[in-house]
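Lab meeting, item 3. Inverse folding demo.
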């Protein structure tokens, strides 16, 4: 019996889409429109589409080739200096030893950056030699220009003077020599001369030792020692920066300390090189590192005996955040182990000012970031922050008057948190702000100690805000903050004022007062209209949690709208008055057209739809609980893998059934029997209209449908003389699994007539010989006894019956 009732209900689900399409074409089209609604692309999708278009577009590629975008230069992010770290409060307590040898980064630039500039005047001490070019101008009695180059033998040749030897002379001596020679051929004052340098010669020097790139180098004759060092990449990491030597003709003519150049700008020993000079870079001397809070942490090479204080000066000195009471020296002791020595620079003696050795590492630690004399003021105050503690300071020295408090400051008390030695645990102290600032009570003027924290509270952080409420016929109903001296008119105005349909002459205010015996509730009748006009008698003062309800005028409703569609002369939406009936609505719509099919009229009501949907949802929830419970029990009782798999399959089938049930939506259809207007008036179906009602009168359909367990489910042209058996035979007859006893007809007016009803068709010669109306649907259920698990579910017939109602069908009781 359960399976048969189930087959009926499931076939109602199968016909749901048919009923929805027949009775609600507008809803279906709206739903389809919503499904295909255009979705605006997001900005990210637009950008990705542009990039793909640029990659695939030939024009885009051509434009990119012709006018490539210039890459924006990446800003160089320099590391924070120790003082920047200190100001930001991130100065580390541990010292980083990621140090580099001092000065070597100077030579990391390309050699061309430091090449000597040749387009500069040559000094008078410049030594002339083979390859130098001279430019000689003569004017007066004789005008001539000569550009000559000193040859390998050190001489030049001029028409006026012949061969002259200049090599080995300085530029000044060469000019004086040429003037004397010209004076031998011309009388004084007849010819004047000017001698200048043209293209200069090159010289070859040798760079050897621990240089980065030792070898022979061809340089400009103006090159100095530093230029040569740059050309060779400077000393290597094992080469000395303190004793770079220049050797000339077997003798060392200069010892150059690169540190003097880097630290003092001393270039006095940067001599100009001569051909065949040898630059020798010896191995470096003792290396000592210094890390931490000094201005130039690095690894330095020591030239001579250097003490700790001198070494600190070499590194630029200790920074402002350096901790002077503990400078640590880490030393390799006799090539066996490391030892450390802590030095207090504030109490440094000659004995403590140790001489540094090769391999030493000096660490200068940072001071702690904690302030040692703070008083912290925070909370609901105008100028929170850290204040200085001094002997004898009190609370009123920090909070001088009430003007320094922010609005809504809590005056009952302020919190003072104090660290109490020796373990520095926290204790709470309290100050009455109101007595201290408003009454001048010195008992509340607490003496402060270092690290005290004073917190001023906002009163709404400690207590709940007080509210009053207004509802009903106001423009902005809701809950509003209660303020002292608040009146009834204030609350009405906060609610946006009265609406047009408000019953302004009388309103109800509820007031709850706490008493020792419990809350006391009062109902107070007020007059909002006179309160807004400013009448002090009616503009009563409010208290916390007052509740004001503004009534509307009796039986107020702005519009009641119903719709009538289909075969009426003037379909559309109509406003109705209270108690207006369906016959009145049909008359206002001009009555039926000659094509109206009254038996197929579909009447739906919003309140009925909501009720039906709520009932079906509750029933499906109960059914789901039963199904899941039985499925869990079956899974736990499974003893084999095959049984467990079978239980899972059954569970999936049950979930599919539940999913189909939840997809059904109630339409709120009420079955009515329409007739010509004269007969319909005053009948039982001529009910009063409600807002949201909808009446659809279709055209006369020309078909009868046959669905379910038949060989050819389809629709046939209506034949007034044909019976149910005639249409079933046209569809090929019943299948083997058809349940003939459960056949039924879904009538066009929303009712159902089944083969199991007593009387009815059976009393008129049998169900199969019954005649049909246009638009009727014959439903042939399938036998479902083979679905064993359905028998285990209680109340499934009731649930499926309610689902059938969602198709807008009124089923006559079996």
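The presenter then showed the designed sequence:
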């Amino acid at each position: 019996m359960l399976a048969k009732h189930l087959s009926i209900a499931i076939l109602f689900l199968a016909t749901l889409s048919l009923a929805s399409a027949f009775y609600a074409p507008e809803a279906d089209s709206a739903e389809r429109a919503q499904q295909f609604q255009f979705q605006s692309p997001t900005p990210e999708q637009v950008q990705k589409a542009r990039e793909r278009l640029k990659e695939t577009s030939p024009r885009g590629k051509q434009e990119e080739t012709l006018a490539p975008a210039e890459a924006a230069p990446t800003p160089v992010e320099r590391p924070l200096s120790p003082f920047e770290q200190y100001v930001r409060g991130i100065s580390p307590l541990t010292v980083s030893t990621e140090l580099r040898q001092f000065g070597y980064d100077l030579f990391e630039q390309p050699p061309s950056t430091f090449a000597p500039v040749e387009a500069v005047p040559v000094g008078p001490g410049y030594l002339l030699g083979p390859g130098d070019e001279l430019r000689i101008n003569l004017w007066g009695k004789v005008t001539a220009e000569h550009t000559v180059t000193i040859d390998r033998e050190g001489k030049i040749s001029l028409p006026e003077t012949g061969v002259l030897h200049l090599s080995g002379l300085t530029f000044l001596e060469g000019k004086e020599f040429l003037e004397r020679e010209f004076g031998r051929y011309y009388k004084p004052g007849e010819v004047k001369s000017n001698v200048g340098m043209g293209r200069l010669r090159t010289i070859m020097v040798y760079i050897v030792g621990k240089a980065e790139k030792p070898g022979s180098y061809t340089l400009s004759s103006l090159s100095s020692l530093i230029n040569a060092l740059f050309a060779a990449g400077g000393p290597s990491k094992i080469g000395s920066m303190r004793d770079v030597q220049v050797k000339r003709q077997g003798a060392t003519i200069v010892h150059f300390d690169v540190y003097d150049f880097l630290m003092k700008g001393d270039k006095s020993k940067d001599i100009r090189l001569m051909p065949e000079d040898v630059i020798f870079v010896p191995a470096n001397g003792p290396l000592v590192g210094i890390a931490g809070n000094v201005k130039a942490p690095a690894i330095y090479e020591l030239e001579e005996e250097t003490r700790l204080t001198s070494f600190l000066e070499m590194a630029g000195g200790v920074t402002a955040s350096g901790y002077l009471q503990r400078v640590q020296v880490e030393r390799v002791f006799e090539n066996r182990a490391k030892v450390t020595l802590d030095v207090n620079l504030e109490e440094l003696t000659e004995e403590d000012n140790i001489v540094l050795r090769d391999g030493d590492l000096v660490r200068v630690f940072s001071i702690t970031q904690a302030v040692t004399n703070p008083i912290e003021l925070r909370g609901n105050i105008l100028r929170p922050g850290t204040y200085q503690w001094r002997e004898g300071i009190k609370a009123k020295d920090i909070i001088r008057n009430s003007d320094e408090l922010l609005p809504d400051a809590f005056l009952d008390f302020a919190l003072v948190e104090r660290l109490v030695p020796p373990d520095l645990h926290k204790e709470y102290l309290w100050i009455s702000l109101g007595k201290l600032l408003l009454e001048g009570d010195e008992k509340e003027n607490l003496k402060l100690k270092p690290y005290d924290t004073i917190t001023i509270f906002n009163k709404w952080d400690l207590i709940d805000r007080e509210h009053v409420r207004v509802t009903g016929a106001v423009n902005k109903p809701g809950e509003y903050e209660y303020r002292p001296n608040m009146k009834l008119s204030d609350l009405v105005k906060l609610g946006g004022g009265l609406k047009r349909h408000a019953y302004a002459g009388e309103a109800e205010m509820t007031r709850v007062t706490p008493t020792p015996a419990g809350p006391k509730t009062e109902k107070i009748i007020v007059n909002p209209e006179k309160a807004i006009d400013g009448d002090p008698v009616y503009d009563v003062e409010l208290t916390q949690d007052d509740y004001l309800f503004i009534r509307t005028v009796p039986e107020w409703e702005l519009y009641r709208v119903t719709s009538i569609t289909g075969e009426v002369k003037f379909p559309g939406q109509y406003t109705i008055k209270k108690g207006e009936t369906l016959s009145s609505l049909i008359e206002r719509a001009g009555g039926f057209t000659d094509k109206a099919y009254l038996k197929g009229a579909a009447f739906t009501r919003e309140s009925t739809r909501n009720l039906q949907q709520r009932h079906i949802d509750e029933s499906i929830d109960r059914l789901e609980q039963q199904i899941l419970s039985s499925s869990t029990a079956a899974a736990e009782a499974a003893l084999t893998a095959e049984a467990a798999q079978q239980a899972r399959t059954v569970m999936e089938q049950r979930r599919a059934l539940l999913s189909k049930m939840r997809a059904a939506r109630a339409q709120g259809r009420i079955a009515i029997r329409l007739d010509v207007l004269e007969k319909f008036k005053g009948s039982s179906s001529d009910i009063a209209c409600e807002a949201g009602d909808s009446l659809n009168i279709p055209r006369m359909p020309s078909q009868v449908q046959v669905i379910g367990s038949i060989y050819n489910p389809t629709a046939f042209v209506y034949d007034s003389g044909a019976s149910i058996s005639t249409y079933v035979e046209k569809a090929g007859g019943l299948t083997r699994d058809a349940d003939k006893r459960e056949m039924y007809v879904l009538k066009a007016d929303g009712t159902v007539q089944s083969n199991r009803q007593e009387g009815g068709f059976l009393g008129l010669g049998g169900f199969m010989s019954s005649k049909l109306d246009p638009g009727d649907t014959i439903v042939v259920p399938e036998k479902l006894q083979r679905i064993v698990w359905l028998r285990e579910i209680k109340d499934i017939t009731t649930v499926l019956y309610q689902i059938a109602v969602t198709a807008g069908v009124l089923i006559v009781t079996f």
